[in-house]
Amino acid sequence: MNFNVVYDNLGFLFEASWLTIYLSFISFIIAFIIGIVVGTLRSYKIHKLLDFVLTSYIEIFRGTPLLIQLFFIYYGLPQVGISMSSHEAAILGLSLNFGAYMSEIVRAGVQGIPKGQYEASKSLGMSNLSMLAYIIYPQALRLTLPTLTNTYAAILKDSSLVSVLSITELTRAGQLIYVRTYEPFEIYLTLGVFYFVMTYSISIISKKLEKKLYYNT
Amino acid sequence: MKKFIAGFLLCFSMFSYAQEDVITVGLCAAYPPFESRDAKSGDIVGFDIDLANEIGKVLNKKIVIKDAEWQALLGGLKTNQYDMILSAMSRQEAGENNVNLSNTYYLLNDVIVVKKQNNKITSKQDLKNKVVGVQLGSGSEQIVDKLKGLKKVARYNYNPEAFLDLKHERIDAVVVGYAYAAKQKNFKSEYKIVDKLAPSELVVVMKKDKDELTKQINMALTKLKSNGVYDKLVQKWLEVK
Question: Counting Cβ atoms within 10 Å, is residue A209 exposed (0-12), middle (13-18) or buried (19+)?
Fold first, then answer.
């Protein structure tokens, strides 16, 4: 065992972890917004054509590998004149992909609210928007919180795929150290520990949040 | 059950017997003209493949080619997945201390490639504050890492991705082996070579302490160089017309 190769590169690994957290966090926020908008619109089936477009979006992004989507966005789109930086492409790819999953989660949450809640808010004279904001979403959030946490963990882990866009996030940083030192055991074990610590802290936070949400209702 | 074990042992002994006359060569078929998949047949072809087969003829052994990820090549050698690496690998890439190396079989210049319209970069001094693309774990990467004052080194799994980014002007230059650059499709209409960097010595890489094999390979290389076979291969694959 030669963990010196890890120790010597700790600063580099932390820097790369920060980039992993940054990319996955921004992507999560955007995916969440996509999820709320698309998921709500799909729950209420406002217009046939709109519904068709949104369903296609979800099916396409869930039905193709994220890696292919990233390659397509970064290397394919410039062919037709849409060029962006590697970070932009990574965030776009991650948020569109996970936005599709998130939409389904939000839809399940919104549709899981009993009909009586809608009728009650209507009879209180609430507008559609305030009904969503004060009655439906808070309850849906409570229903979907565990799944949302899973999604964040999934984004964090899948962000390792953006290393193919020559972004030095955690996985790429590990590869970089590996090609210099050829110590796969120590390096990949360390990468695993780093990812685990990141996702596990998210689950802890989520459990705390869950408890709080339950006590408050 | 007994029969099964006996059969298993028989297979195993045949397998180990067969190994005597076989040299397994590990390479990463993503580096034309040294090794790549033929666009039509899908077979692995290139200078290194022909050279390996000629070495096999001299040593009277069968050559088996195994394709692997570039970054996994040296690890695979360590775990005996192949007997040697013949993959345009340079002395520096292989790291002299952990492996046995043959004599140099080819001297490959690393060159700076920029877009054809680019008139600002004409030598390696002009790379200051520029973004330079390289293949991760390649000799070119090591050379670029030694250059001072670059804005950023963009590292790609494979060279084609670096060239795509150069094409779309997300990076300023690519550093790559001369033969790779010059043999690329549409090279002259899109890019140009502006400067040379230090040459890297390409070697055959074997596991540490395989001294007998190393000796044989060196012997075969010397023979191929003296009987003209080597020159023919260089002409066939590496000379730029």
Answer: middle
